[in-house]
Design brief:
Number of domains of chain A: 1
Number of helices of chain A: 3
Mean pLDDT of chain A: 91
Structural class of chain B: mainly alpha
CATH class of the largest domain in chain B: Mainly Alpha
Helix content of chain A: over 70%
Oligomer: heterodimer
GO molecular function (chain A): DNA-binding transcription factor activity
Strand content of chain A: 5-15%
Order of helices and strands of chain A: HHEEH
Shape of chain B: rod-shaped
Distance between the termini of chain A: 16 Å
Radius of gyration of chain A: 12 Å
CATH architecture of the largest domain in chain B: Orthogonal Bundle
Number of domains of chain B: 2
CATH superfamily of the largest domain in chain B: Winged helix-like DNA-binding domain superfamily/Winged helix DNA-binding domain
CATH topology of the largest domain in chain B: Arc Repressor Mutant, subunit A
Largest sheet of chain A: 2 strands, antiparallel
Low-confidence stretches of chain A: none
Shape of chain A: elongated
Structural class of chain A: mainly alpha
Organism (chain B): Allofournierella massiliensis
Helix content of chain B: over 70%
Strand order of the largest sheet of chain A: 1-2
Protein name (chain A): Helix-turn-helix protein
Largest sheet of chain B: none
Mean pLDDT of chain B: 77
Protein name (chain B): RNA polymerase sigma factor (Sigma-70 family)
Largest interface: A-B, 27 and 19 residues
Order of helices and strands of chain B: HHHHHH
Radius of gyration of chain B: 37 Å
Low-confidence stretches of chain B: none
Chain lengths: 60, 137
């Protein structure tokens, strides 16, 4: 499955596709969720929500 | 599981999506940190208010009645020997640093009259403090 297919399925609301995109971008989210050398779990949650919104809003 | 981008042309979309996502993430992070900063500022504010209330408490302690604060028992005794008007003039002059004319207006006395009451009070105080110290209460 190409990324485009996966993104389209995620946009359509396929939970499996959303989960695999989330897993794919997890390291990136974790990197941005670290504040002063400590992982801020609230910020991580916010970033996960941002990812979901980005999936919805991104125009292919 | 999805493989990482290996540079193929059809994954251009993923690169775009990643760029888009990173921008969104940076914005979220910035807003979050801003909110956190505002919150911590509020926290400091509450702390200051608390500190102020503590000093208020201290202030209240400081505003205990005069007779609780006077350490010299001789002075206390001497003050009790004065009559009401003399004590008022003396304390107004010494503690509140009010000028004679202001005290005089309040008591219906002239400047000279107030000054006279004040100096009489001083004399009385001196006398009774000396007397008390002589007996060493």
């Amino acid at each position: 499955m190409t990324f485009e297919q996966m993104l389209r399925r995620a946009k359509a609301g396929d939970h499996e596709a959303i989960t695999s995109i989330l897993l794919m971008y997890r390291p990136l989210l974790l990197k941005y969720a670290v504040i002063n050398g400590r992982l801020d779990e609230d910020l991580y949650q916010e970033l996960c929500i941002t990812l979901m919104r980005a999936i919805d809003l991104f125009r292919i | 599981m999805w493989q990482r981008n290996n540079g193929r042309a059809e994954e251009e979309l993923q690169i775009k999506f990643t760029g888009y996502l990173i921008q969104a993430i940076r914005r979220t992070q910035r807003d979050y940190l801003k909110a956190l900063y505002a919150y911590s500022n509020q926290e400091t504010l509450t702390d200051t208010i608390f500190a102020v209330s503590q000093t208020l408490e201290q202030e209240v302690m400081e505003r205990l009645p005069l007779w609780e604060k006077i350490e010299s028992s001789a002075l206390l005794y001497a003050l009790k020997q004065l009559d009401e008007r003399e004590r008022y003039v003396f304390l107004a002059r010494v503690l509140d640093k009010r000028p004679f004319d202001v005290i005089g207006v309040q008591l219906g006395l002239s400047y000279k009259g107030t000054a006279a009451v004040y100096y009489r009070a001083i004399r009385k105080l001196k006398k009774s403090i000396e007397g008390v110290n002589g007996y060493d209460i």
